Amino acid sequence: MAPVEFATGALWAVPACSVVDTTAASPDTIRVLNVRAPAPDAAMPVCPKQRLTFVDAPVAYALQVPTGADLRDVIEVGVGVSRLRPDVVVTTSTEVVEFARKRGGYSVEALPWQWTYVLVTAEARAIARFSSPLERDALAREAVRAPARGAVEPFPGRGNADCTAPALTARVEPSRAIAYVEGDGISRSLAERLVVITGLERVVALGADSVDGALRSGRAAAAVFPIPRDPRTGCAVPEGLRVPATAVPLVDVHAHVIVRRGSGAAFVIAPDGSLHFARRASR
């Protein structure tokens, strides 16, 4: 399967926009959960919708939440002895988003399409099957409990030699396992669905730094993991994984940002899904 060439630029352009809570003054500290911070050298995106000042931006304090905690409880009740409630939450959970919308007191905004999950395998049947947009759309509906769609072009990594690894070689007696990145619920859900579709026998969780070795040694017949859709992030796949040109894009996923009204949170959403916190300009 030949890689599809694409050009960066207009196709990837995502208008920056700001979310400004006008019901309270911007505080010195914003309590956040699962928020992706911008790179240290990243410039503040320009947003035509609101005027924000960029000096003395509030500190984004990341709340520590117990493993397995229900985000709906965290949003409503808070965490810790002090019951601190987050001001800003980023989540891919459709259940949490619907809860915030129905609960009231929160605004919800969609973030850009941020990740494309790919299938890496040497099995020709799987490669051919998911070259169909209809098959990718069906997989997104059936396997992903997050805002998802079948992967659409331009596909990340294609045409970038720095991101591309040699294709896998089919083995005479391949493993019947499909690997996913440990701790990534979306890649696990996809892997579990692919076991049914492809006839593989089981899924196995691996650390991101072990996936490539498992594929090339034959300990796994296939693997599923995410690649950032914004090409400006480079080859920012887990643990520096390089992606074979025959990797099959499966689904695109994005998150939502939930903002507590009255928190004073003001930020600009960058095309890569990171949030640049700022203060509102005086009027």
Blueprint (SSEs and pairs):
Layout: E1 17-20, E2 29-33, E3 52-53, E4 59-62, H1 71-77, E5 88-91, H2 94-103, E6 106-121, H3 124-129, H4 133-143, E7 148-150, E8 164-165, E9 177-181, H5 185-198, E10 202-206, H6 211-217, E11 222-228, E12 243-244, E13 248-260, E14 266-269, E15 275-277, E16 279-280
Parallel strand pairs: 2-4, 2-5, 8-12, 9-10, 9-11
Antiparallel strand pairs: 1-14, 3-16, 5-13, 6-11, 6-13, 7-13, 14-15
Helical content, roughly? Answer: 10-25%
Tell me about the biggest sheet?
9 strands, mixed
Give the count of helical stretches.
Answer: 6
Which sequence of SSEs, written as H and E, runs from N to C? Answer: EEEEHEHEHHEEEHEHEEEEEE
Question: In one word, what is the shape?
Answer: elongated
Mean pLDDT: 79
Stretches where pLDDT is under 50 for at least 5 consecutive residues are: 1-12
Q: What's the total number of strands?
A: 16
CA distance, first residue to last residue: 57 Å
Briefly note the structural class of the backbone.
alpha/beta
Q: What fraction of residues sit in β-strands?
A: 25-35%
Taking all Cα atoms into account, the compactness measure Rg is: 20 Å
